[in-house]
Structure formats: C-alpha cells, structure tokens
Amino acid sequence: MTAPASVTVRVPAKVNVQLAVGGLRPDGFHDLANVFLAVGLYDEVTVTPSDALRITVSGPDAHQVPLDRTNLAARAAELLAARHGRESLVHIHIVKDIPVAGGMAGGSADGAAALLACDALWGTGAARAELLDICAELGSDVPFSLVGGAALGRGRGELLTPIEVTGTFHWVFAVADGGLSTPAVYRECDRLRTQSPAGATLADLPAPEPSPALLDALRHGDATALATVLSNDLQPAAVSLRPSLTATLTAGTEAGALAALVSGSGPTCAFLTKDAEAAADVAEALIVSGTCRSVRVTAAPAEGARVLR
Ligand code: C5P
User: Which of 5, 32, 229, 235 has the fewest CB within 10 Å, making it most exposed?
Assistant: First the structure.
C-alpha cells in the first residue's frame, strides 16, 4: 500500500455542562468532575509530508493561533514521532472555526486531530489506548476531543468515562472579543475561594462529583431538565476577570434561552435552548444586544475526531 499524500481530520469543540472544581493538587492541577459535551463546531486539520515541521492556519481568527511548538498540534506530531522513532517532518494546516482561547477546547481539538492525522499519514497504527495516553500528555481536555460525544472527565479531566445521551441538544454560543487564559481563570477561582468564609484550605475541598440529575437529563434527552442543573465552578472566576460577561449571559436568558453559562474557562458564553427555532431567536437577540463579538448556533452531541480523507 502506498502512503497517503495527505490526511484530513475533523474535530469538534466542547462545552462543559458540569464543571465541578475540587482542591488544588500538589502538581498544580485541580481535581475535577467534568461533564464534557461535544458540539457541532469543528476545526479541520490536514497533515502533509514536508521537509520540516511547520504549521499554517486559515480562518477569521487565524492570526490568534500560535505557529510555534506551543501549538498542541505541533506537540502531538512530535510526541507521536518520538514514540515511534521517526522525525516529525510534516506540514500541519488548521482550518480554524472553533473560537480561539474561548473555553471550547479549540487548541486541544487541534492536538487530538493532528495526532490522529499523523497516525494515519505515517501508518503508525497506534492503538486507541496509546493515542489517549498521548492526548493526556498534551493536556487535560485533549482526550475528550479525540473521543467526542459526551463523557465524564475525572482526575484533572483526562480520565474519561463515556456518558449516554439521547436526542439532540440545541445551543447558541456568544463569542467574546479576545480570549481568557485557562491558568489565570483557575488562579482566580482559587483566589475567590480563599476570600470566602469556607475557603483558605484549597487542598481540602470535598471531591467533586457528577450530578445524578444532570446525567439523567442527558440520558433522557431532556433539555428543560438539563437547563436546571447546568453548572460551572469556573464561571465566577471568568466573570470576575471579564465582568462584561454578565451582560452577555443576561441578554441570552432574556431572549428565551433555557439556561446560560460560561463555557469552560470562558469567555465564550453558552445558551441551551429548547429547539432549533428558539436557538435562532436567541442568536438574533444576542447579535442585536451588542454584548458579544459573534454568535454561533449548533447542536450536540457531536462525534469525536475523525479522518475525513
Ligand atoms: O491540562 P492543560 O494544559 O490544558 O491545563 C492548562 C492549565 O489549566 C494548567 O496548567 C492549570 O493551571 C489549569 N488546570 C487546572 N486543573 C485542571 C486542568 C487545568 O488547574 N484540572
């Protein structure tokens, strides 16, 4: 068999329908109960043999994406190559549609996609377990980008258990101007907690647990029930760093969203709606409100990273 000339992988964004943040661990990460839901906004990553490892990016926000070794797509190629005793001589092109630094795992998605694409291009034949292992090394959210659908992430978010979902959930995302740094949002979360009366012992917070009601709502495809239990422990920190998010969240709620929350570490805001028609109404109202840079309408769950061609 001849090697393919190039491989393209499509990979989804995510929203956290529950992000329960526990104590600060000695390694600097936080224990999580992280319920991921993949949503139908996608990046496409194409890898082609080249004389050096390089990255190019297209799309409206391409200029915000790092082109050096800090890009998880480059690190994914390097890690896979190193494990299989070869060089990472590949041109990685990212067609960027997931908001950059928006709390939707766009960087993680590109890491997972590049990994899968290089595995196919090089004929590495890595087992799923090895790919997941490399994903976990790349970042806490990267394994979920590979897997997609819905999953509970324990540990720092990398230890995944699939979650059953019925039907389709309709979402609107309000994209903010500029991103937020994930470590900065976690630091702010800790700062706010140590200020509160219950705080001061960040290492001793109770272990975060998934909400049984939330898992039930996903299993039954019940958007109204899901709306009552959506939660994100990072939201107060994201809003503290970006107070204008309050106006965005309010605009979507007033327009008829079932619920509003910050997506992951933000600043993208997520709105759950009862159906596609309500999603279109909420999107329109958010645009008119002028409280965000752009608006995206999509559905969940979406499948994980997949080779397109
Ligand atoms: O795993 P990842 O590289 O995406 O994490 C980025 C940063 O986010 C970490 O360095 C840490 O500051 C914070 N983080 C955390 N607890 C987690 C995941 C991430 O504190 N469970």
Answer: 5
Whether 141 is catalytic: yes
Between the CA of 71 and the centroid of ligand 1 the distance, in Å, is 15
CA of 239 to the centre of ligand 1 (A): 18
Which of 19, 29, 104 should be mutated for ligand 1, with most atoms under 8 A from CB? 29
* CA distances, 286 to each of 11, 86, 279, 295 (Å): 26, 49, 10, 7
For residue 194, the 8-state DSSP code is: H
Residue 27, in any domain of the structure: yes
CATH value at residue 197: 3.30.70.890
Full pLDDT tens readout for the chain, 309 residues: 677 899 999 999 999 999 999 999 999 999 999 999 999 999 999 999 999 999 999 999 999 999 999 999 999 999 999 999 999 999 999 999 999 999 999 999 999 999 999 999 999 999 999 999 999 999 999 999 999 999 999 999 999 999 999 999 999 999 999 999 999 999 999 999 998 766 557 777 889 999 999 999 999 999 999 999 999 999 999 999 999 999 999 999 999 999 999 999 999 999 999 999 999 999 999 999 999 999 999 999 999 999 999
For residues 125 and 222, membership in a common domain is answered with no
**Backbone dihedral angles phi then psi of residue 295, each to the nearest 5 degrees:** -130, 140
* 79 assigned to some structural domain: yes
What six digits make up the tokens of 230?
Answer: 């959506």
Q: Pick the atom of ligand 1 nearest to 34's CA.
A: 21
Total domains, the chain? 2
- Kindly give the distance from the C-alpha atom of residue 156 to the centroid of ligand 1, in angstroms, as a whole number: 7
Has this prediction a pTM greater than 0.90?
Answer: yes
One-letter amino acid for residue 253 of the chain: T
Is 14 an annotated catalytic residue? yes
Residue 309's contacts (CB-CB under 8 Å, 6 or more residues apart) are 7, 8
